[in-house]
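**Backbone shape codes:**
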Amino acid sequence: MLGIYFRVLLTSMWFKLLLLIIAVEILIVMMYKQKLGIAILDNDELNTQKIHRVLNIIRLSIPVMLSAIMLYSIHFILGRIHFSWVQIGILSMGLLFTYIGILFRNKNEYANIYYIASTKGEVIDIQKTEDQERKSSYIPVYRYKVDSKVYVSNSEFSSGSRRCLPEIGEYVDIYYNPKSPSEMQSELDAKIRRHFVRWFETFGYVMIIIGFSLSFVLLF
């Protein structure tokens, strides 16, 4: 029964239009990512910033378009739009996780744009902090040299496990802004941010789809 509804839905002009819009947005993102890579290699800072802004705007619109497709599908098949509190909670969390993932993706892209120089940095300390529940977290401190000047900087992220971090005295890759060498990220920071992007975006989009799909599950 539900399959028949979906086959009819695929004949809807508005549904096809929404699918076309989101497909075009994805293609634009892929195209602009290529342009961004070229602009970074050409050291074209002005063009790089423009492309990055466009990518940010398009990425922010994709979850909205996905929600619009799902809303139209529900209205087309069920003839009404009604959500339970459970669905609203799942959808809200899905959108939240998705936008957090997009935020991390944009920050990761920003780092790729500006932190284009690299050097080796030494782990000189592991700072330990405790929260109110006395749970410990650890933050590496790096020392690196650029043009005979020494810089000391903390990692952007902390870890709840000391074993996940490099040892004191160990050397790691440091990526920094050549125009402002104090702005940096370590190899570990870049790895964690990429992991956050994948986890938050995947979990967020799955929750959005589940939240909308519950309308059909509850009916059938």
In short: Strands lie at 117-130, 136-146, 149-154, 171-177, 180-186. The longest helix spans residues 45-78. Helices lie at 2-9, 13-41, 45-78, 85-114, 187-219. The chain has two domains: 1-81, 117-192.
